């Protein structure tokens, strides 16, 4: 049987079967298609502005390494006019992060990009090894995730950078969608599925050096993890492939296993889950404000980890869902009136039975049968964004989650004995 030709150029021999759609491509066409898709994602979502400084969250892994390589290539090819640099976070995990940072240092030389490393130890006084020793291996990813996000923003603010790009791919987004569904946390979908998350500085802090107004974006949002690996392989990129030694206990691992099983049955399942998450996020009432003005809205009410731009229809869809909820409420009330009319009976004494007016009892809601029962009006609670009173970081609470976690760690930290005590 003769070798299959490339589906695009129809000249070279096909060497790659794309995981996304099972298209047979040669090496050159695959690389071009992959880079073009990333470029289209950047252009269609207007991720970059000419002249801005962009920090790449670099861990040394395949995702951030491919992101750095692709952005450097596309910036030169299409003249984005952005200044790229690498920003790494040292969580303090011996045998893992110290080795991966060596890869990042090599990448900085290979791509001719300046590198800045920010450590948990200098920011919080704790390394992840110390945190795990204190709290154990279960739940430690919560600490690392909260600290890492804040550390990236603080590192970017130190560099005077207002935009950080991360290597989150389609598999990561799909896993996050499933995790939020399994937790029943639909309001978070509008933020986690957004390709851009940012907070306008005017609504939180006017200080240009503040770390509360950092824009984040995900250029690899629609790229499959397997295709990222293929791109890194065929481009001979230098990356670190060892998994974090503390991550096997994470809840994300269960969602990842489910996504991989779905992908075996249906290759498009990953993007299907991502698109479904985007659509569900738009339908959540109040999601129209979560983009913090990125969609053109004028609302000043912000939610934590702002996002939800999705598409130009997100505002309308969010409003439609709220209107539908209201309409359903009216329909329910009308239906109850009809039912009351149907079941209303005439007592032996006109309007009375045992001294009670049955018609009033039937019309009265079950939860307010008592005459003295107060009327409780349910109101939806909206998170209003502000700053942490301790560290000044973006938070919807008086004290941000990072400071709360640190307070618990420091409270239980063994006291260091001083000579002479």
UniProtKB/TrEMBL annotation:
Feature: compositional bias, Basic and acidic residues: 354-364
Biological or metabolic pathway of the protein: tRNA modification; 5-methoxycarbonylmethyl-2-thiouridine-tRNA biosynthesis
Database matches in InterPro entries: CTU1-like_ATP-bd, CTU1_C, Ncs6/Tuc1/Ctu1, Rossmann-like_a/b/a_fold, TilS/TtcA_N, UPF0021_CS
Coiled-coil stretches: none
Gene name for this UniProt entry: NCS6
Gene Ontology cellular-component annotations: cytosolic tRNA wobble base thiouridylase complex; mitochondrion
GO biological process, one term: tRNA wobble position uridine thiolation
Location of the tRNA(Ile)-lysidine/2-thiocytidine synthase N-terminal domain: 53-243
Organism: Patellaria atrata CBS 101060
Function: Plays a central role in 2-thiolation of mcm(5)S(2)U at tRNA wobble positions of tRNA(Lys), tRNA(Glu) and tRNA(Gln). Directly binds tRNAs and probably acts by catalyzing adenylation of tRNAs, an intermediate required for 2-thiolation. It is unclear whether it acts as a sulfurtransferase that transfers sulfur from thiocarboxylated URM1 onto the uridine of tRNAs at wobble position. Prior mcm(5) tRNA modification by the elongator complex is required for 2-thiolation. May also be involved in protein urmylation.
Pfam families on file: ATP_bind_3 (PF01171), zn-ribbon_14 (PF16503)
Subcellular location: Cytoplasm
Enzyme Commission (EC) number: 2.7.7.-
UniProt xrefs under PROSITE patterns: UPF0021
HAMAP family: CTU1 (MF_03053)
Family: Belongs to the TtcA family. CTU1/NCS6/ATPBD3 subfamily.
Record's keyword annotation contains S-adenosyl-L-methionine: no
Molecular function GO terms recorded: ATP binding; nucleotidyltransferase activity; tRNA binding
Region described as Disordered: 342-377
Cytoplasmic tRNA 2-thiolation protein 1 C-terminal domain sequence ranges: 386-415
Record protein name field: Cytoplasmic tRNA 2-thiolation protein 1
CDD domains in UniProt: CTU1-like
Keyword annotations from UniProtKB, A to Z: ATP-binding, Cytoplasm, Nucleotide-binding, RNA-binding, Transferase, tRNA processing, tRNA-binding
């Amino acid at each position: 049987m003769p070798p299959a030709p490339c589906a695009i150029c129809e000249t070279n021999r096909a060497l790659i079967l794309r995981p996304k759609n099972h298209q047979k491509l040669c090496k050159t066409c695959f690389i071009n298609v992959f880079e073009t898709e990333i470029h289209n994602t950047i252009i269609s979502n207007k991720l970059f502005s000419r002249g801005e400084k962009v920090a790449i969250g670099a861990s040394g892994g395949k995702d951030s390494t491919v992101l750095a390589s692709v952005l450097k290539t596309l910036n030169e090819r299409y003249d984005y006019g952005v200044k790229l640099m690498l920003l790494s976070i040292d969580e303090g995990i011996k045998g893992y992060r110290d080795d991966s940072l060596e890869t990042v240092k090599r990448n900085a030389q290979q791509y001719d990009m300046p590198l800045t490393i920010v450590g948990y130890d200098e920011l919080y006084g704790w390394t992840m090894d110390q945190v795990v020793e204190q709290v154990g291996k279960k739940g430690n990813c919560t600490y690392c995730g909260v600290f890492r996000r804040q550390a990236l923003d603080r590192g970017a603010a130190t560099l005077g950078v207002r935009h950080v790009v991360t290597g989150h791919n389609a598999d990561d987004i799909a896993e996050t969608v499933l995790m939020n569904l399994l937790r029943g946390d639909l309001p978070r979908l509008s933020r986690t599925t957004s390709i851009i998350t940012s907070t306008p500085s005017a609504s939180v802090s006017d200080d240009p050096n503040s770390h509360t107004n950092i824009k984040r974006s995900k250029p690899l949002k629609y790229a499959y993890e397997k295709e990222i690996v293929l791109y890194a392989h065929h481009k001979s990129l230098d990356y670190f492939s060892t998994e974090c030694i503390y991550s096997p206990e994470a809840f994300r691992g269960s969602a990842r296993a489910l996504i991989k099983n779905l992908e075996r049955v249906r290759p498009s399942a990953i993007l299907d889950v991502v698109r479904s998450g985007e659509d569900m996020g738009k339908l959540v009432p109040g999601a129209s404000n979560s983009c913090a003005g990125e969609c053109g809205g004028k609302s000043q009410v912000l939610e934590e980890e702002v996002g939800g731009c999705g598409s130009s229809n997100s505002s309308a869809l969010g409003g439609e869902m709220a209107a539908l909820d209201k309409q359903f409420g009216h329909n329910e009330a009308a239906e109850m009136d009809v039912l009351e009319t149907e079941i209303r009976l005439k007592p032996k004494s006109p309007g009375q039975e045992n001294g009670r007016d049955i018609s009033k009892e039937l019309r009265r809601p079950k939860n307010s049968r008592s005459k003295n029962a107060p009327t409780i009006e349910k109101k939806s609670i909206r998170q209003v964004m502000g700053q942490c009173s301790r560290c000044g970081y973006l938070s919807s609470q008086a004290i941000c989650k990072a400071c709360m976690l640190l307070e618990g760690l420091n409270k239980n930290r063994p006291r260091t004995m001083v000579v002479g005590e």
